[in-house]
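Appendix B. Chain record.
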Amino acid sequence: MIESDLPAGAARAAGRVGVSPGVWPAVWPYRRVFAHRCGGQLAPENTLAGLVVARRYGCGVEFDAMLSAERTPFLIHDETLERTTDGRGEVAATSDVQLAALDAGRWFSDDFAGEPLPSLRAALLRCAEWAIDVNVEIKPALGQDDATARVVAETVLQHWRSDRPPLLSSFSERAIEVARAVAPSLPRGLLVERVPPDWQAHCERLGVVALHVESSALDEATARAVRGAGLWLVVYTENDPGRAARLFDWGVDCVITDRPDLIP
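Structure tokens predicted for this chain:
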């Protein structure tokens, strides 16, 4: 896909992200600590309140983006609303107006009562304003891999306002393929629980620049092999400072954590 083939508005936006298609620096360009789901254990997940935490500790943020019934990306992890909001039902069957009216903070603490569920656009604008590095996890509801990847990639292209573009990641290989087609200028990472034996072939086929691995499943030899292949290596979700220090010693580029106050 060439730039003129991008969706309406995306071609104009593609030049703003500061990265040529398929070309990324060998050295990790972001902060080495990212707060899990915006604020980790220090704020309600996937909210703008979490971004305040990230700004306070000088870390980046990882958050999830899922589509509403109107195919607007909102920050939320689960396909249903009950765990992290006062709503009920499926995210994919809920309108934008209904999602924006939910309380996404009281479940965490009364101190955050009334905290709204933010759109991806709102989160991106705030992160760019505060110079917060971003990892957007494309989180499709069942059967929505293509649509979610397409809209998330388009939204990043249209609304990001900083030189260092967000890193897109997903467990869904199909979502990564679609994001690559829509936004080749954005770096992408493959999420896995454990590093599969054919990890290098997977990464090459998908054109990703990063491999994201569950922290406890990673060993030193694998970490060094991934880094030796020229891929960025990200681990999630590590909350122990000692273990994090060892991971950095192994060559890990980034630790996603629930405790950005503990991981230096």
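Further analysis of this model is presented in Appendix C.
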